[in-house]
Design goal:
heterodimer, A: 115 residues, mainly beta, four-stranded antiparallel β-sheet, B: 113 residues, seven-stranded mixed β-sheet, 51% strand
């Protein structure tokens, strides 16, 4: 079975500071990895995805993530955050093997950017 | 460009009442999903449909039924609502299962009293 662990439930930072949101996964087969963002009272929107190839993936709004197979991690980073980045962020995994194609989400990390 | 449309956006039910949450997508996607979101729990899969005519249970299917009416529409039914089903429900769709991104609706906030 696959699972996702987001190591921090809340991350407060000041505006223009760098941020890293941590995500670890477990799966017995090859994986596809995603980061989604949810603004208040809205649905989820894709930030970026790793399917194959380069382990450094760039997404929208200046976010990037690095896939590390040996550490089974997919941490999300941004060098300088804005107030508008305040939202909940979800890491998700989908396995490529067999019929296990369900998208499994972590419990989310609430990023709060303070002035 | 509507994407994934859910109705209703808000609903209050009494315990024991039934209702159907509607979902439609206009992206010609094969796969559709129903999730529930509860504080501190992330999103949990209730049911999914890999393609028209097929449905499968997800992580938390008890108390729910689904119908994949056609390629566009995937409904979720609560036959006898319980307070434990108070949640925000999201419908999503993807072109193919697994390795393509899922597109989400705006959610239905359901309260069972």
């Amino acid at each position: 079975a696959q699972s996702v662990t987001q190591l921090d439930s809340q991350v407060p930072v000041f505006e223009e500071a760098p941020v890293e949101l941590r995500c670890n996964y477990s799966s017995s087969v090859s994986v596809y990895l995603f980061w989604y963002v949810q603004y208040p009272n809205q649905g989820l929107q894709l930030l970026l995805k790793y399917l194959s190839g380069s382990t450094l993936v760039k997404g929208i709004n200046g976010f990037e993530a690095e896939f590390n197979k040996s550490q089974t991690s997919f941490h999300l980073r941004k060098p300088s955050v804005h107030i508008s980045d305040t939202a909940e962020y979800f890491c998700a995994v989908s396995s490529s093997g067999g019929s296990n194609y369900k998208l499994t989400f972590g419990k989310g990390t609430l990023l709060t950017v303070n002035p | 460009n509507a994407g994934v449309t859910q109705t209703p956006k808000f609903q209050v039910l009494k315990t024991g009442q039934s209702m159907t949450l509607q979902c439609a997508q206009d992206m010609n996607h094969n796969s559709m999903y129903w999730y529930r979101q509860d504080p501190g729990m992330g999103l949990r899969l209730i049911y999914y449909s890999a393609s028209e005519g097929t449905t499968d249970k997800g992580e938390v299917p008890n108390g729910y039924n689904v119908s994949r009416l056609n390629k566009r529409e995937f409904s979720l039914r609560l036959e006898s609502a319980a307070p434990s089903q108070t949640s925000v429900y999201f419908c999503a769709s993807s072109e193919r299962r697994g390795y393509t991104e899922a597109f989400f609706g705006q959610g239905t906030r359901l309260t069972v009293v």
